[in-house]
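USER: Write out one fold?

ASSISTANT:
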Amino acid sequence: MRLRTGSPANRRIVFALTSTGMFLVSLDVSIANVTLPAMSKSFPGSGRAALSWVICAYAIAFAAALVPGGRLADRAGRRIVFLSGFALFAVGSLICGLAPSLPVAIGGRIVQGVGAAAGQPASLGLLLAAAGSERRAQTAARWGGTGAIGIALGPVLGGAITTALGWRWAYLVNLPVVAIVACMAPAYLAETARHPGRRLPDPVGAVMLAAGAALLTLGISEGPTWGWSSWRTAVAVAAGVLATAVFVHRCRRVPDPLLDLRLLGRRSFALVTVVTVFYSAAFFGLLFSFVLFLTDVWRLSLVDCGLAIAPMALVVVILSMRVGGLSERVGFRLPLRSGAVLICAGLLLDAAVLGDPRMLLFPWLPVVMLIGLGIGLCYPLLSAAAVSEMPTGELASATAVNQCARQLGAALGVAAAVAALGAATPAPVADFHLAWLVGAGFALIAALAAAALPSGRRRRADERLRADLDRAMT
């Protein structure tokens, strides 16, 4: 029997359904890291740079399709786009799980990324429509916290699933979860108003963004193999810069740009965007390099690798649901700056003390918990910080730019880690140290940008955000 709309039980079910979508989208960003060692055995001859596209292709497709996905949800209705997006996500998961070759698996990841880009904005819209006006800001923060949990648990779940069932099941396991959500959604998710008059954003801009990010990622990640002075590296980087320039030009000139770059004229928003890009680069680069270090240098099994990363995940899970209260008291600047500094310090310690001998209890355990503390302080607050000072009409655009920055930062971080680790397999310890120093540099840039944010109380920002959301939903 259907529960009464607006009842506490119904709101909990709506939250569970929509946050499950957010959880899967985030989980599949990080779970792929643990599948790479097993995938390399299934696809012999695939180098580290080629395998990294399992992660980068997902992030780039997500970034390019995010704004069109959100606009499509406004035009066609959020429930239908939510279900369609996650159905496409399931198709991509199936392609990955059955892939006979690495290029097919990468293609499946692109399909997953496009589906996630359609489903994620629609899921938040559905959740906010169901939440009471006094709960919307808090509910949005909890929804973002499920993303942090998904990111953190990816390596742990991925290691267990890959060891028990094989790497393909790390993707196939999405299918029954999507099926359960699809069966329950029609009963509990109310369709929102359609706005068929709203045009989709510039499709050429989406292509240029994807092409620019992909070509730059290709040039950076393949640099050690091709040679930094080779013509192929130069062509990839030059073409990426050109495509990015065309994208920026179109965002400034076309009536419906993919991203409203005028938002970057707002100092606080521009700073949060910088924090998002470089925090994401540091985090996804360290996650990629940690898995390879644990499996290649310390020769841990995938299960043990997941267990070694589990303390970091545990800290993130505990903190991500509590950091909203901290930011309400002290604002965004302190937790974002502190989180980035902790990540930077943890990576510097790793580069200084970790080597060939296994040192799991010390210093590995306290250092990864330190990094987990930094992740838990940063990740749940990035989206809220991005929209905290935005007027009603710019909320959706600000969220889209922030989410896009997060995915592009992920591709940058993985590409930089691949470049630092070089072409040798397995990479020597010194190259892992270099990768962690690069990640520490990214985190330091994020910390400096966060330190430049204006001080202020989150409570006032939440009140303004709640009022804007109320008006946006009416």
Q: What stands out?
A: Residues 8-42 form the longest helix (35 residues). The chain is about 80% helix and 0% strand. Residues 1-5, 469-474 have pLDDT under 50 and may be disordered.
